[in-house]
Amino acid sequence: CYELKCDVFKLDEGPATQVVLTRDEGLQYYRTMQTMRRMELKADQLYKQKIIRGFCHLYDGQEACAVGIEASINLSDHLITAYRAHGYTYTRGGTVKEIMAELTGRRGGIAKGKGGSMHMYCKHFYGGNGIVGAQVPLGAGVALACKYQGNNELCVCLYGDGAANQGQIFETYNMAALWKLPVIFICENNRYGMGTSVERAAASTDYFKRGEFIPGLRVDGMDVLCVREATRFAADHCRSGKGPILMELQTYRYHGHSMSDPGVSYRTREEIQEVRSKSDPISMLKDRMLSNNMASVEELKEIDVEVRKEIEDAAQFATTDPEPPLEELCNHIFCDMPSLEVRGTNPWAKLKSVS
Fold first, then answer.
1. Residue 118's closest CA among 259, 255, 311, 253?
2. Which residues form the Dehydrogenase E1 component domain (predicted)?
3. How far apart are CA 142 and CA 261, in angstroms?
C-alpha cells in the first residue's frame, strides 16, 4: 500500500491516494521498464557505431510514464505520441526485435524498415509523429471516431513540454471540450524542449492547468504507481462521458533531445546525476519491492539477465537482417488499390506501387 501525491485543477476529487501493488504487477512493470531502458541504451550504442542513422530520440528516464499509462488502459484503447516513440511502440505490442530492426532500417522492422525511429506503428498505436504538436489534433480525431462508434474506447494523446505552446494544441482542446471527446491529453514534461528549459519557454509551467476549461491533474512521472493511478482516474472520467481531461507527468530524460544533442550544454552533468540517483523510475520500483519483501535481489537479477539476452538477440537480428529491396520503395501508397506506376526521380524512371 502506498501514499500518492497529486495536484488537481477543476476537479472535486482526485485519483486514489492509497494504492495497492501486487507482486506480479511489480515484476511485470520492472521487466517492461528494464527492457525499454536496455533497448534505448543499445540504440545509443548502435547509433555511435553509425549502424543507426538519422533522427533518434531516446526514452530512457521516462519509462514510468509509458508503463504507468498502459497499466490503466486497454490494448483496445488508442494511443498517439510525438517522435520519442520507441517505448510506446513496445508497450503497445511491438517486439524489441521489430523496433531495433526498424531503427536500423531493415526488412523485419515494424514499419518494414521504411519508418525509422520516428515512424513506428502497430494496432491502435498511431505512431511517432515527426512534426511538433501535430499528433494532438490527430489524437482528437481518433477520440472522435471512438465516440462516433460508441465503443467505450478512448484515445491517449501525448505531447511534450516543448509542444505545449503550439497553437494547434489549444484549437484541439476547444474542439475536444465542445464535443466531449473521450481523450486524455498527456503532457510528458521532461523539463526541456530541445535545449530550452520550461522556465525559458512557457509563461506558465503549470501545464495541467493550461486546458483552462478542461480539468487537469499533475503527478510524479518518475513513479509508475502515481502515473498508473492518475491514468486510471482519467480513463474513468473519459469513459463516463465527461469529456477530455489533461494530465501532466513530471519526468526527465537522461539523453539529449536526440542523438545529435549531447544534452550537457544547457544543463549540468550534476543535474542529470542527481535525478538518476534520487528518482530513477526503475531504481524506485526496485527499492520499493525489495524493502517490502515482494521480490528478492536474485529474482530481479534474473530478469535483468533475461532482458539483456533479449536485447542482444534483437540487436543481432537488426544488424544482420537485409534492407528492403528497391522495388518495394513505393509500395503501400494506397490501401486496396490495383498496382500503379509511380514516377521516380525523373520522368523515365518508373517504379511500381502495390497496396
1. 259
2. 31-326
3. 33
Return the CATH number of the domain spanning residue range 7-324: 3.40.50.970
What's the CA gap between 139 and 90, in Å, rounded?
A: 19
Full 3-state SS string of 246-298 = EEEEECCCCCCCCCCCCCCCCCCHHHHHHHHHHHCHHHHHHHHHHHCCCCCHH
Q: What is the pLDDT of residues 63-101, one digit of tens each?
A: 999 999 999 999 999 999 999 999 999 999 999 999 999
Q: Does pTM surpass 0.90?
A: yes
Angle between helix 23-48 and helix 63-72 axes, rounded to 10 deg: 140
10 Å Cβ neighbour count for 222? 26
Residue 1's pLDDT is 59
| pLDDT band at residue 113 using 50, 70 and 90 as cut-offs | very high
Tell me how many degrees the CA angle 94-108-52 measures, rounded to the nearest 5.
90
Q: Which residue has the cell 489549444?
A: 170
Distance of alpha carbon 99 from alpha carbon 117, whole angstroms:
8
